[in-house]
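[Meeting: bench + compute handoff]

Bench side (C.D.) handed over the final construct sequence. Compute side (W.E.) agreed to return the predicted structure before the next meeting so the bench team could plan truncations. Sequence as handed over:
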Amino acid sequence: MPRAPRRPSDEARRGAYKPRVDFSRSRRRREDGLLALRRLDRDAGLFKRRRDETAPAVHASDPAPTSDQEAPPASNARPPPGSSSPPDPAAPRNAVESELEGLSELVDKVCSDDTTSQLEATVQFRKLLSDEKNSTVIRIIRADVLPRFAEFLSRHGLPQLQMEAAWVLTNIAASDYTLLVAECGAVPRLVELLRSPNANIRHQAIWCLGNIAADLPSCRDILFEHGVVTPLLSQFRDDMKIPVLRTAMWALSNICFGKLPAEVQVKPILEIVSQLIHSADEKILADACWTVYYICGGVDDAIQDVLDAGVCPQLVNLLMHASASVLLPVILALARISAGDDAQVQVLIENGILNCLAQMLARNYPKNIKKQACLIVSNIATGNKEQIQAAIDASIISPLVVLLKTSESDIKKEAAWALSNAASSASSEQIQYVLACVHNVSSVLWLMTLDLIFCNVCLPSGCRYLVSRGCLEPLCSVLSYQDHDLVYMCLEGLENILLAGEAGKKGEESGTNPYAQFILECGGLDKLEDLQDVNSDRIYELVMKLLQSYWEEEVSESDDLDVPGSNDSADTVETKPEDAAQPPEPVSGADEAE
């Protein structure tokens, strides 16, 4: 078995001591989780929408449609992938399949110079696309008529042809071939149609642009290149019909997904959103909240812009909304805001988020909602002592412990992180409260939470209190577990405890690290030496670091005592239980100054 190299100097070890917690560490850990959530946004918040209702008649003299003519997007739920299956060859042919046989004739009409034939053929193409089958879309795309439809968008003297062409492109953009629509020359013309005097045409152009924005980042890049944001924002007016407002808000949320270009100003967007998050319409409300969530993750320093827009109080109020379609983007947006600095987190606390979260954790909410609620509590708990105390005063620890006992594993892990973060910069009294709440959970969950607490606590006073409560011995027992992640977490916790022991070594008459001695006497050193043979590079490297830093003399002595031919080369000096070092007494109030 390899042995630790020579121990470094005391000065080198003291230089490695971290006098306080890196408060951003736990928040950065969750960014990976948030990125994973963003990959699911296309199923939860981004939707492509088809338009299948009867087309309203559009005339050049019509200034605006009636509310009955304005049809909203069909649904707020995106159909599952693969729902459109290829046609069965044995099935009887329907009207669409029959018309596909005459596709070449329709192409000839579209490419002709006769405007009546062009309109008739475009209407037929729109009807063909109503069956939502990719096979139909593919045949139309192969007919190479998309550039022709894009050209029709510029026929300002023929508004009905503009409308039908925009409709055809909208439904093709709702398929898997959105990029072809974005690259056929339609985007600048669609943006131009946002200034059309006809409300029906403006509505259809918004719809098509929303479908393009819901696809690849390259599609959104094309939209930004043609300046889509400003003309789209100009569509939001006080006299907008609800169906048009739904479509515009949905399109705006899709455009805000992902990384926004630097030239896009988010403040005008947030001015509109700050009004629409008070909407009584559930679809408008949900898309407004998705927009806030996307902006928080897609723009540098956007959290402060969101807070300055005044949306935080209403977002917190919406945590009690009955609809899951609203609650999900709300809690995701608040989770991103909670990853801000202490001053930004304080705004959430002052608006009463902790009381809402305590209710959510105690009630029967969906799994993804509860997981995000735990994450917000965890982020708040990485703040200062006053913010930790606010979480305690809101009675939020008890429901976290219940989740630690009864929920699925990923929620248990988030709850454990929230509890451990609550101890990351807490006072001894606050740590005592957290440990008292967690003490009655199962042994494995207790050890997992304890590992996390030790990983985060670096304040000498907090470490002394944890050790005085007998937490170090059960922590060492985790070193024999088979779960490498849990073992590594345990090693990180031991490293923090030993670093804190170095700071308190000056007060020891023997000049030794009291926590290193206690780990030795409770069998922790034997387990550390056994871990040198584990099949994990990161565990081996951290074990070697600890051995060479704190037990070089004991390891050397063990080498000298090895009997030739013996297989038990990891034995150390045997200690009797009655000789074991007693844990330090709980710290007094004066120690908190450390």
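W.E. noted at the follow-up: The two ends are 40 Å apart (CA to CA). C.D. will use this when planning the next construct.
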